[in-house]
User: Fold this.
Amino acid sequence: MKAGVVVIAEMSADGLTAASRGAISFAGLMAEAAGEDMLILVPGHFPYIDEQPCHGAGTVQYEYPPSGNGGVGIFAYNGAKEIAAGAGCDVAFLSGDHLAGYSAEAWMTALSPICGEINPRFICIPHTSRGWDYGPGLAIRLKASLIGAVEDFRRQGEDFFFKRSVLKGQWQLEVLPEKRPAILTVLPEARGTQGTALLEEARSADKRGRPPRVSFLSAPATGLRTKSLGRLPAAETTYDFSEAEVIVAAGKGIGAVENLDLIKRLAGVFPKSAVGCSRAVCDLGWMEYRRQVGLTGRTVAPSLYIACGISGAMPHLAGMRNSRCIVAVNRDINAAIFQVAHLGIREDLLTVIPAILALSEKGSNTTTQ
Assistant:
């Protein structure tokens, strides 16, 4: 099993995650540029049925290497056919009871031997909380390079340079990996991840002269010192942004938790409004994580999104950039939020918001009279 580009995908009960789709699309572009084959690895617990050969369009043939004579059966898991046929490359499912619930140690233990054997040039993983968790450890085990939050790439000769944002999106770096393999955590906003974006060219089986293969690999639980005990239910239900036509979001730039009152009052000016925030505000304990907008929070697309004191780092933009109208209030003229805002106000929000509230109250009083 050889490939120059490997994608480590994540599955949910509904199939392939959106972040994994993006990573596959991005990796497909790289594989095409490098002239390399691509392989998708999917860790988890995948029961299979070995009752009859696959003949129908809704089934996927797979191999079962551990026994050598497992035969051809039906891979009974949501999304298997989509991955193999849609991506146009080989797929290997790493299965074991210990992978039924996520554990960083279990994923690293299952992935490091096969990634070491394949020795790809690049390993792409989704830039999710799970990817952040096991990615660095996997890089250490493979003695690999690690580049996080990748947005784009550029080829120069035989070298690949990867672009990522720093300083809350104000600067962008191009990074050249010095070790092989290079592990990349791919942002949802990276090149090629929008829309369906599985490469149409890669869907053709003629490039290999055979259909894509789906393999079922056993991942034994050897030497594990930890195990997943399952998931704890959230303390609070997810905040409902679905009915909100206007979202007023607070960032660390509001200055103090006491200033959240201004944010809430501004939201109260609009009917069908809601209050959101950035990850930094949640980490400070100023608001609950259920109100977080961004990569590790909620994705929203209201008619009006007012970003107050938000710098505009890529993880936050990933959750709100599809809003119909974005208004940014920030004192920093170089804040990355202004790059996506339809209207930018460079001013202290402690000056802007009270002025808006005063105008709103004046208008209400005039209407009443």
